[in-house]
Amino acid sequence: MSVPAAIEVVDLALQAALAYGRADFGARLRQTRRRLTEDGVRVLVVGEFKQGKSHLVNALLNASVCPIDDDIATTVPTIVRYGEEPAAVVVHEYGGEAPAESKPVPVDRLADYVCDPGNRRGVSYAEVGVPRTLLAGGLVVVDTPSVGGLASMRGAATIAALPLADAVVFVSDAGSEFTAPELDFLRHAAQVCPNIICALTKIDLYPHWRRIAEIDRRHLANAELEAEIVPVSSTLRLHAVRTNDHMLNTESGFPVLIGHLRDRIAGQAGQLACRAAAQDVLAVTEQLTTTMRAQLSAYQGGDASAELIRELELAQLRADRLRERSARWQQTLSDGIADLISDIEYDLRDRMRQIGRDAEREIDQADPVAMEDQFAAWLQQQVSGAASANFVWAMDRGRWLADQVADHFAEDGDKVLPDLRDVDFARMTGSIDAIVMPRNEKLKLGNKLILGMRGGYGGTLMFGMAGTLVGMALLNPFSIAAGLLLGGRTVREERKRLVQRRQMEAKSAVRRHLDDVVFQLGKESRDMLREVQRTLRNHFTGHAEELQRSVNDSLQAAQNALRANKEECKRAIADLQAELARIAALEDRARDLTAGPQLVLSEVAR
Amino acid sequence: MNTTSGLGASVRAVMRRAIKAYRDCPDMVAYLQRHLDRMNEPLRVAIAGQVKAGKSTLLNALVGEEIAATDAGECTRAVTWYRAAETPRVTLHPSDAPPRQLPIDRRDGALRMDLGTDRVDRVVVDWPSQHLRTMTLIDTPGLQSISAEISARTAGFLSGDEEPAEADAVIYLMRHLHSSNVRFLESFYDRGIARATPVNTIAVLSRADEIGAGRVDALMSARRIARRYGADEKLRSLCQTVVPVSGLLAQAGRTMRQAEFAAFLELVRARRSDVEAALLSADRFARYDGLEPDVCVDLLHRFGLSGVRLAVTLVRQGFDGAPKLAAELVRRSGLDELREVLTAQFTARAELLKARSALLALDVVLSRAVRPETQALVVEVERIVAGAHEFAELRLLSSLRLGSVKLPADVLTEAERLLGGLGVGSTTRLGLGVHATMAEQRNAALDALSRWRRRLENPLSSLALTDASRIVIRSCEGLLAEFAD
């Protein structure tokens, strides 16, 4: 069943919860609703340089939204979503507390902003809206700049964006099989985003694409990666759409890709969202029903009162157990987070120390002046590579911890896992500053002269004085020669000393920089993990409180029932039965939500 | 500039003295002897690059024969040397076993080698080809290969940490530029003698016919991209120049058969709309019914889709004979340009590059096994390195390229040219046409000489400029001396 139906059911549940005075369910259901309405299905298009990512997005949507060029590459991410009218916005983010600033631009001028080498305008990302039915269901396609290797800054930023994506389309052209960096990237991506489609592009150009696809499949199998390879040709697809040629469209492979995106990814994401919504609704209705059943049996009295007493005892027991457990899960959570923080921090420090050692070795081999820029870039790459690896690990452990905590609630039948997507992971790797290398002092001519003179003066004087003893002038050829020699030596020594000093300075700059990075990243990762902890705690506390409240309500109802007279009883019974019927209907609808998608899948199979 | 032979002679002499000095140590002698012998062999040029950059295809194009096997998947698995010889022979050198001969097994022209299971150090192919006489070509397995062992082997071969590299010069193939390309070029830097010279590396923008979805004008785009790379500061400091080449087109052009031309002619004569529809994609062309299916598949294999498109366009434009079409394809492929650059940069400098490799080897030996009697040799090596103007030129060129010596833009261009950065021929150095007369060259040289003398004497010139001027002036004087002969 579709997302709108799910929203409707959630709205009904929300009304019911409020009507029964259970405002505590309100927050949870509202969050469910927000997730259903706001989260589109994000598909990230990633890949190496010049593999045809932008072309693929254009062909997919049959619109020239992403600029393509033989040479210039995309430099900022472009987010393409549904819009009534074609429109484009570029967004500048200033980091920190400053709000992002967005500016509308003409769609045909977008290339100036997103394909700007060096990104002089400082655009953070661009958003484009196009009226396409494929996008109407909430599908959002993101064209990214090329990854350029996992260790690059871009690669790290892309990895950090992956957990927010529902699927990744990894683009690699049919000209060659996967390279080692590509496979490495896929391996990392698979850890944080389970849905990966490998698009093999440009199959119109390469007669051997079937071989390449086969080889790639083998590589994926060897790496134990579950990813589908979909061969496509953007050129053929655009040509087919222009000439309205269905055969050619099929040949372009795009129908398969769209099928994957629509049925598997969007369908799956929708299915997941519906299932999560249904679960939330059912958890609410179950508790409402439990309370009302208790009331009902209390009012009905008679035979039912024995049952009532048993149920009440049971409820009391559950509440007690819950309280007991609450101490246990809180323990698990706080211990888990403490371990996690220290492990992650240790890992980060360890990686940085390794980089520091490598860097010192590099510096020892050459004069820092000669390699300043390259060195800074190298260091930046190493650091962001390490940071992203550290980050992936933190993510993994965070999920595992959530699972551990949820196990404590498993006895109640519903293991409700929180959605960690609300935690802002992207923040973590975004802010590594470049190293500030020490301003290197070079031996200038002036310095050289003075230095040389200092040495030379001594030499001249010494030999000159010695010379006067044997009856020569103070400035004689020997003393001048000695002066020159000593002067030269002084300059040479000074130069050597300067190189050594520069090496020392570079090393201490590296050490300082790595310290800063550890400090900065350490703070960020600690903050992130604390946020994970907060999210988990709020989630599970809420869950525990709801359960507790239901138990209390039942007890309260039973006490009320004992006090009520016959008339009141009759009315209350009728009311409660009607309410129960209504809630049962709601439950049925919620169950339909989870049952629905299987129907869709079988239709697809047919 | 005929001093290079003088340089070669003095390097040979010092090598011989070194062999004598180390005669009690057979390992050293063998090592030095190998490097001495190497000076009498053709220049060794390695073809390196990422997986599937088209290394073997380019090698075939340069040799003019399809001898190296090429395939859609990763293909070259061992470092393979192609040397000129009277009779063909293939020798396998395993890492831990004596070399053995392999049978010569050619399928569709390409050599098939059964490498077995040993760890292979290299394969040496002796081949009768006049194109290998001036250069020994070395085909390397791809870098960034998923098979890490293969990648490591290539990297080790090209930039051994201690030993001087086995190759004197490198043609580095890259598809579109990519950060790992640059990193590899960086690792090719060498130490010692002519420190960190981008002068023995040429970058090739390969598979140029595939840029821009294989349009007919792809090669123009490629030229534009190559120009941009050539001007890129970072790349300038790593290689001489960037040349766009479509190896596939060049290989197909140089080995074109009459039957293939006939097929193109048939395509031109067929209904245009049919042919255009067929040329939309490789799959469609393979199914095209105007030709035999084998012919289509063969054309695709040999020319690539963009090659077929280009050939059909060219035949339409009036290249109406197989030799004419073949020549035009080769011209468009950029192979001629690459050959020119190779001649200017490598062949003309072969003796110098070989002398450099030999001195590097000697340097390693002398610094590792220090003996009292070798002190004189150390001095001698230093004298050669400091005294040979060619090395001074190389050093200055590389520091200009690396940006460690900064000159104003116009002065920089002239300095690079006079130092032989574009080629060591006298007309190239002087920036004159090939047909310039002796008198014209003499005048140009005198002009340049006086211009640079003024720069040297100008008290406002920076130290970098006066230092550079001294070397450029010697180059100019060398040119003039040549004309005086």
From TrEMBL, chain A:
Keywords: Coiled coil, Membrane, Transmembrane, Transmembrane helix. The chain crosses the membrane at residues 461-487. Residues 305-332, 544-589 form a coiled coil. Residues 43-191 form the Dynamin N-terminal domain. It comes from the Bacteria. It holds the Pfam family Dynamin_N. SUPFAM superfamilies: P-loop containing nucleoside triphosphate hydrolases. This is Dynamin family protein.
From TrEMBL, chain B:
InterPro entries: Dynamin (IPR022812), Dynamin_N (IPR045063), P-loop_NTPase (IPR027417). It holds the Pfam family Dynamin_N. Residues 45-151 form the Dynamin N-terminal domain. This is Dynamin family protein. It comes from Lentzea atacamensis. The lineage of its organism: Bacteria, Bacillati, Actinomycetota, Actinomycetes, Pseudonocardiales.
